[in-house]
Amino acid sequence: MYTRAFTNWAQVPVVMDLQTACIILGRGYDALKKDAREGKFPAFKDGAKKWAVKKDDLLNYIDQQKSA
Fold it and tell me: Which of 11, 41, 47, 54 is the most exposed place for a label (fewest CB within 10 A)?
């Protein structure tokens, strides 16, 4: 489990695990994984079959949530 706190956006990795996205969004892991499975959250399975999120996709997701 990844629990590092970021103090600015530049510290966020280009590709992060789903747990890191949960911390940034303040959402639970199971809920975010469910949204990813349903195509409601922009995550993908990496080579190890773990969920991952691109930083740019996360930022776009946040912007869409603000306007919704």
Answer: 47
pTM: 0.84
Q: Please give the domain boundaries of the chain with CATH numbers for all domains.
A: 13-67 (1.10.10)
Q: Low-confidence residues of the chain, pLDDT below 50?
A: 1
Q: Tell me the two tokens of residue 50.
A: 């773990």
> What are 21-35's pLDDT values in tens digits?
999 999 999 999 999
